[in-house]
Amino acid sequence: MPKTTFFNLPSGKKHTLIEALQKEFSHVPLTDASISNIIQYANIPRGSFYQYFHNKEDAFYYLFDQHISITIETFLWILKKHDGNLFEAMVDFFQVIISDEENYRFFKNVLLNMNHRMEDSFTNIFTDEKKKGHFDQITKIVDFKQLKSAAQNEFSQLMKLLSTITVHAMTQKYAKDLPLELALKNYRAQLELVKNGVIERR
Length: 202
Known about the structure:
The protein is an all-alpha fold. It is built from twelve helices and no strands. α2 packs across α3 (35-42), α5 packs parallel to α9 (134-141) and α6 packs antiparallel against α12 (180-198).
């Protein structure tokens, strides 16, 4: 968690510092990231960095959590757009995430250099109780009438499974530099396997 002095920064200075973090953590793994580069990008003294963050890990996980929060909000918006149709929303969500140029480099770098903490955040992205009750919001939007009773009863497990599939598909797209259409085709195929097991057929 950043120090109070970071949150008290004027919005312009805070934005500049966040951009510097984004630049560094989008190009190298956390272990190779350099505070020297960050302070150079942000044009601040080294001492100022330590007034805002405890260390580079603190800075990285702040940025990481910000990206995760924005990603969840994006999913909620897409889910509403699809009137609670979970699988239609997942496909749209996947396409939006891998097409987002602003976040592309950061997520690519994270996914190709994940540790347990990062992997856990991705796996529980929809179900983490600490994320402002997003799971509760999802359950209020999803059209449960489309799902079998077993899927409804184990909905949190279903969402963890979908997040795992999504992260795997993103990693494959980045690792193999797959064209968007091929990555989307592969993702649809994997989702279809899950969908066939949980969708209520009428």
